[in-house]
Design brief:
- The protein is of the alpha+beta class.
- It has three domains: 338 residues, no CATH class; 214 residues, no CATH class; 197 residues, no CATH class.
- The strands form four sheets. Strands 3-4-11-6-8-7 form a six-stranded mixed barrel.
- Helix 10 packs parallel to helix 14.
- The longest helix has 43 residues.
């Protein structure tokens, strides 16, 4: 069996070497199709299938708590506190649990030395044991002999900063100005968990005590402060549903014992994808669109190459007839013809697999912090590529091989039908991808030109932060109130907001209603001071802005919300309940609509005074002026010298959002360009084959005095049905794709006539170019030569 296969491979290789141009063209097209699908699968594999690189990863899960009823204002956050984790870990019998919290540390070799920024985690003491992470040197997170907090470092950090020195165990270093002792080095090859790079591990219990206590996050210092991440490993012969049932029981016992509302226990895999879907849905949707487009390009490649295989195999009728007369069976001939497809598909697979090393660089175009470790080639990527190679071989060579080896006089009609189906598929896929790319490009251009309706381009914003873990809640509130006072008393116009327009859609969506009515409306909650409104040039249609005095329950609504809640009535003096904050506010003003929260729509908005909300430090807004940064820095220093100020133009977050849209449109445009090129080649090859196949007919028509227009019409009739079918199917699929892409179209209709017209014009021009040369060649046929050749 192997001998016959190797003989077929050798024969196929010799045949392809005789037609090198043909082989190179086919291999290039297959590489495009298989390469795009393999690249896309590598990204999907890294995000949704690759779990933590630990022993028996299928038994490891992430544990979470999800509120069973909608939280009210002032409720504690969902999720695990350290106390909740400790209760679950102490009482669980069906799984072992661990806690962790990602953090960055400043590492110094001594007090006066330069600092190195490293990534790490605060972890429970059983972290390495539960996950089965090996320790190459020293021990796991055990108390150090000299009484200082113990840490474990990664093999990579050990090699990079300590040159692999075995005496590193027992060495004291400083992290965040606290002295710690290195007690162990993790095994080689383990650099992190999923998207989390690990350079150093710090025991949570030791971080709750001096000297680490001052710099550790609040969730570590205070056992009842949310939130801390929890993972677990199911014990042998325990399924995840059984582990979830036990976790649910323990979580309910703990929360009821502490007067907390019930929450549902949720277990998820350790893959990045589920977390990404919650935090970055736009990136996931973009990846889904690219995946679908890659599949369409692969199908188009199959159709195109299948057509070339069909033309080549039918052109070898004489060779096949001779071999049959010499005793070759049809099965043997089919196997040899398919082996040529397998050889070319294998070349494409090898090149595609080698090209997966570029995936992290491609993903960084969409997400700057994409981790290369997530997208390394593994056995799943290799298996997918192998499957793609086999599928490609079957798709492009099986039908042409069967068609070419039919008995003479049989199957001619079937061959014509097959060519027609292939041509229809090519046209349909090209139409879908071209219209999709046109819609995305037009939407991006439209979003960039939508009037802001406010001073987006002449405003700067300043974010105020405190050093991590150094400020209590009471101190944070005092800083917040002081910033309000300083901003109001400033010599220059400095406004206060609790959120940043465009990048963050307010504090969030909230139900808004009148206290005495059960009719609910949904609005964006955007706290903004009167000074901030002046900076952003938001003009009032009626009334005044909400007072910045603490304790004043006033609100301003935009015209959209006013028309929804009180159509044709005066909203001033009305009261509304904002469920997100739990407060009742009096409407004192109506502001004109502006695109504060989205590019393509005007959302209902309710503006509260930042003094009426609490918790986070404010965002300061001011005119885009070189002096604004120094003014805000001086203002913040007068409140607390440790405050960290970051200033940027307000347009910057908008540009980031548009950047993602532009990249998506560029990728879609690139895929559409590939599809058009493949479709043009396909139409050209089909039409060329039809011209050659009907050479005698064309010669007879010309010899009998047929006009060039009649000859041209006769040739076009041969492909009008598949062209029309491909166009109709493509338009229907493009409409469906437009509906899926609705969230990325920024106000452009999914059935935008201009986009459809441009896309069809491009496809029409490409089609004319594809058939122009074959038609010209057909009209140049010498009828006497054509008849004599027959």
């Amino acid at each position: 069996m192997l001998t016959h296969f190797l003989r077929d491979v050798d024969y196929a290789w010799r045949q392809l070497r005789r037609r090198r141009s043909y082989a190179l063209v086919v291999a290039a097209m297959l590489t495009v199709g298989v390469g795009l699908s393999t690249t896309t699968y590598t990204a999907v594999n890294g995000l949704f299938l690759r779990q933590w690189d630990v022993r028996d990863a299928d038994a490891v899960f992430l544990a979470g708590l999800q509120r069973t009823v909608r939280p009210s204002a002032g409720d504690a956050d969902d999720g695990f506190t350290l106390a909740a984790y400790q209760y679950v870990s102490a009482h669980a019998t069906r799984a072992g649990y661990l806690a962790y919290l990602t953090e960055h540390f400043d590492l110094r070799f001594d007090q006066a030395g330069p600092k190195q920024r490293i990534a790490g985690m605060y972890v429970s003491g059983n972290f390495l044991d539960v996950l089965g992470i090996p320790v190459q040197l020293g021990t796991a997170l055990r108390p150090s002999a000299n009484g200082t907090p113990a840490v474990v470092i990664s093999h990579r950090l050990w090699s990079r900063l300590f040159a692999g020195d075995p005496s590193v165990v027992g060495r004291m270093v400083r992290i965040d100005n606290a002295t710690v002792t290195i007690v162990g080095v993790m095994g080689a090859g383990f650099d992190g968990l999923g998207a989390h790079t690990l350079d150093i591990l710090v025991n949570i219990e030791e971080a709750r005590q001096p000297p680490l206590q001052e710099s550790s996050p609040a969730a570590v210092r205070h056992a009842d402060t949310c939130c801390i991440a929890v993972a677990g490993r199911a014990h042998a012969n325990v399924s995840l549903p059984v582990a979830r049932e036990e976790l649910q029981l323990l979580a309910t016992q703990f929360r009821r014992g502490h007067g907390l509302p019930d929450a549902a226990a949720v277990l998820t895999t350790t893959a990045v994808g589920p977390q990404l879907m919650r935090g970055e849905p736009a990136m996931v949707a973009g990846l889904a669109f690219i995946s679908i487009a890659a599949v369409l390009v692969l199908v188009l490649t199959w159709a195109n190459v299948g057509n070339l295989f069909l033309a080549r195999s039918l052109g070898r009728k004489h060779e096949i007839a001779v071999r049959v007369s010499l005793g070759a069976s049809r099965g043997h001939l089919v196997r040899q013809l398919m082996t040529e497809g397998l050889v070319l598909a294998s070349v494409a697979g090898i090149v595609s697999l080698a090209g997966t090393v570029l995936v992290p660089a491609l993903l960084r175009l969409l997400e700057e912090e994409a981790d290369a470790r997530l997208f390394a080639t593994d056995w799943r990527v290799a298996a997918f590529t192998s499957l793609a190679v086999v599928s490609t071989c079957l798709a492009v060579s099986l039908a042409p091989a069967l068609q070419a080896t039919r008995m003479p006089g049989r199957g001619a009609r079937a061959g014509g039908v097959l060519r027609g189906v292939i041509l229809a598929v090519q046209v349909a896929v090209a139409v879908v991808l071209t219209i999709g790319a046109t819609l995305l490009t037009r939407a991006t251009i439209h979003a960039a030109t939508i009037p802001a309706d406010y001073a987006r381009d002449t405003t700067s914003v300043a974010f105020i932060e405190t050093p991590a873990g150094t400020v209590t809640s009471a101190r944070r509130q005092a800083i917040r109130e002081s910033l309000f006072r300083q901003a109001r008393g400033s010599d220059v116009l400095i406004g206060v907001a609790d959120v940043l327009p465009v990048e963050v859609l307010g504090l969030g969506r909230s139900d808004v209603r009148e206290p005495n009515r059960d009719v609910h409306f949904t609005a964006q909650v955007l706290p903004l001071s009167a000074g901030g409104a002046r900076v952003l040039e938001l003009s009032l249609a009626s009334g005044r802005w909400a007072s910045d005095t603490a304790g004043t329950a006033e609100a301003v609504v935009n015209r959209t919300l006013a028309e929804q809640m009180w159509p044709g009535e005066n909203p001033l003096g009305r009261q509304v309940t904002v469920e997100l904050t739990g407060g009742i506010y009096t409407i004192v003003g109506v502001v004109r609509d502006a695109h504060l929260t989205a590019f393509d729509r005007i959302d209902p908005v309710v503006h509260l005074s930042p003094a009426a909300t609490g918790g986070i430090l404010p965002v300061l807004v001011g005119r885009a002026d070189p002096q604004f940064a120094s003014q805000v820095t001086t203002l913040a220093a007068s409140v607390d010298p440790s405050l960290i100020v970051t200033v940027m133009p307000l347009r910057q977050p908008l540009e980031r959002s548009l950047r993602e849209a532009r990249i998506g449109a560029s990728l879609a445009g690139g895929l559409a360009l590939v599809a058009i090129v493949l479709a043009v080649v396909g139409v050209f090859s089909v039409f060329s084959y039809i011209v050659e196949d009907r050479r005698r007919e064309v010669g007879v028509r010309i010899a009998l005095g047929g006009s060039r227009a009649h000859v041209r019409a006769a040739l076009f009739r041969a492909i009008r049905v598949p062209l029309a079918a491909g166009l109709i199917v493509g338009l229907a699929a493009a409409c469906a794709a437009g509906m899926v892409l609705r969230g990325f179209l920024f106000g452009v209709s999914p059935i935008d006539l201009l986009s459809y017209g441009v896309a069809l014009a491009v496809i029409g021009v490409a089609g004319i170019l594809a058939v122009a040369l074959p038609v010209r060649r057909a009209l140049a046929i010498d009828p006497w030569l054509a008849l004599r050749a027959e």
